[in-house]
Amino acid sequence: RYVTWPVSAFAGERAPWTVCVLGADHFGDALERTFEGRREQGRALAVLHDPAPERLRGCQIVYIGHASAGRRRAVLESLRRLPVLTVGGASDFLQEGGMIRLSAGERIEMGINLDEARRASLVIPAKMLEVARIVIDNGVERRWR
Predict the structure, then answer these.
(1) Which of helix, strand or coil describes residue 89?
(2) pLDDT digit string, tens, across residues 94-145
(3) pTM of this structure
(4) d(CA 21, CA 26)
């Protein structure tokens, strides 16, 4: 709901939204339970855990939980300019080229790399930027809170 993908992000009209999880998986089966029976924009939702690298291009969202910065950067580079929303929690995730960084403290905080999202032809609306703590836009990192 909060990001717009180009039609080319899907294999076909009825292809599901595919969420892929790489590396440290803090979700367990919570994603499957959350998405079970749900549809977004007429599409079912599917979750893949640690898919083969060649399958990542078919994902619309990839959560990168690798502890190694080198592994994160390799995945991000392989997806660069593809319509795949990259999400992670590492402190340098946005600077490494990730699009959405989530961090948990007293509350969940979000950072957005708008430059990378644009490169991937993804549109992130202003309402998402308003709740982000950090936004990278035109190479400038802005801290809101």
Answers:
(1) coil
(2) 999 999 999 887 888 999 999 999 999 999 999 999 899 999 999 999 987 6
(3) 0.92
(4) 10
Percent helix, percent strand, percent coil in the chain, to nearest 5: 25, 30, 40
Going by C-beta distance under 8 Å and a sequence separation of 6 or more, which residues neighbour residue 12? Answer: none
Rg (the chain; Cα; Å): 15
Query: For residues 48 and 17, is the Cβ–Cβ distance under 8 A?
Result: no
Tell me the C-alpha distance between 106 and 109, whole Å: 9
> Considering only CA atoms, which of 81, 122, 123, 88 is closest in space to residue 104?
88
> pLDDT (tens digit, 9 = 90+) per residue, 31-46?
888 888 888 888 999 9
Beta bridge partners of 44: 39
**How many H-runs (helices) and E-runs (strands) does the chain carry?**
4, 9
